[in-house]
Design a protein that fits this description.
7 helices, about 250 residues, Rossmann fold
C-alpha cells in the first residue's frame, strides 16, 4: 500500500465521484488532505465519511475555481494551514452533453474555466511549493481527449488541451525534481457519466460509438491509479497520460 504519511495532498472536485474516491484513497494512505468542491453539501458528506474511516481531519473549502484568484487562494490557504504542499490532484470537471449548435457562450466559457483554466492556474500557484518538497501533479483528463465523441465538443476540447498542457509543463520542469502527469479515465460509474441523464433528442447510434464495450469503471479503481502515479513508486513517470478506459481508445 502507498504511504503518504507527512504528505499534504490538495484535491479538487472532492465532493463526489472520482474526487471523493481520490480523497478516500489518499486519506487511507495517511495524507493530510486539503479538499475543494463547489457543492457544500456533497463536500461535507466526503468529510464526514473520511472521519468515519478514521482518517486525519481534512482542511476543506467550498469554492468555485473558475477564476485565477480563487485558484491562487486555494493553494495559498492549503500551504499556510497545512504547512506545505506535496501533491496537487486536479480532479474537478464539468460535462455538458449537447448538440454543438445549442452550446451557449456561457456554457462554453464555464467548461473552459473549470476543466482547463482552473488546472492551469492551480498548477501555476502550486509549482513553487511543489519544487520545495519535490512534489508532483496529477491532472485528470479523459479518454475523450483521444477520440472524437459526438455531443461533447467543449468537454473533449478541454480534456485534449489538458493532456497537452500536462506534457508541456512536464517538459518545462524536466530539469527539476517535480513530476507532472495525467490520468485519463473512460466511462465511470458516476452521476456525471450516466447516459440516462443525456438529452433525449440525441442520435443514439452516434452516442453508442463512445460507450465502451466493457462496463464502466468504479471511481475507486481510477483513484487507485491516481494514488500510484503520485507515489514514490512512480518516480520515473513524468509527462505521461495513463489511460484507464477499459480499452475504449485501443481500436
Amino acid at each position: 500500500m502507498e504511504n503518504f504519511d507527512g504528505k499534504v495532498v490538495l484535491i479538487t472536485g472532492a465532493g463526489g465521484g472520482l474526487g471523493r474516491e481520490t480523497a478516500f484513497a489518499f486519506g487511507k494512505a495517511g495524507a493530510t488532505l486539503s479538499l475543494a468542491d463547489v457543492n457544500a453539501e456533497s463536500l461535507a458528506e466526503t468529510v464526514a465519511q473520511l472521519r468515519s474511516m478514521g482518517c486525519a481531519e481534512p482542511l476543506f473549502a467550498v469554492i468555485d475555481l473558475d477564476t485565477r484568484d480563487a485558484c491562487q487562494q486555494l493553494v495559498s490557504d492549503t500551504v499556510q494551514r497545512c504547512g506545505g504542499l506535496d501533491v496537487l490532484c486536479n480532479v474537478a470537471g464539468i460535462l455538458n452533453v449537447s448538440h454543438m449548435a445549442n452550446v451557449t457562450e456561457a456554457q462554453w466559457q464555464k467548461i473552459i474555466a473549470v476543466n482547463l483554466s482552473a488546472p492551469f492556474w492551480l498548477c501555476q500557484a502550486a509549482i513553487p511549493h511543489l519544487l520545495e518538497r519535490q512534489g508532483n501533479i496529477v491532472n485528470v483528463a479523459s479518454s475523450g481527449a483521444f477520440v472524437g465523441e459526438s455531443y461533447l465538443v467543449p468537454y473533449t476540447a478541454t480534456k485534449a488541451g489538458l493532456v497537452q498542457m500536462t506534457k508541456s509543463m512536464a517538459m518545462e520542469f524536466i530539469k527539476t525534481g517535480i513530476r507532472i502527469n495525467a490520468v485519463a479515465p473512460g466511462g465511470m460509474n458516476t452521476p456525471m457519466g450516466n447516459p440516462d441523464a443525456f438529452p433525449k433528442d440525441l442520435d443514439m447510434e452516434l452516442v453508442q460509438q463512445f460507450i465502451p464495450v466493457r462496463p464502466p469503471a468504479e471511481p475507486a479503481m481510477v483513484a487507485d491509479l491516481i494514488l500510484y502515479v503520485a507515489s514514490d513508486r512512480a518516480a520515473n513517470i513524468h509527462g505521461a497520460c495513463l489511460l484507464s478506459d477499459g480499452g475504449h481508445t485501443a481500436g
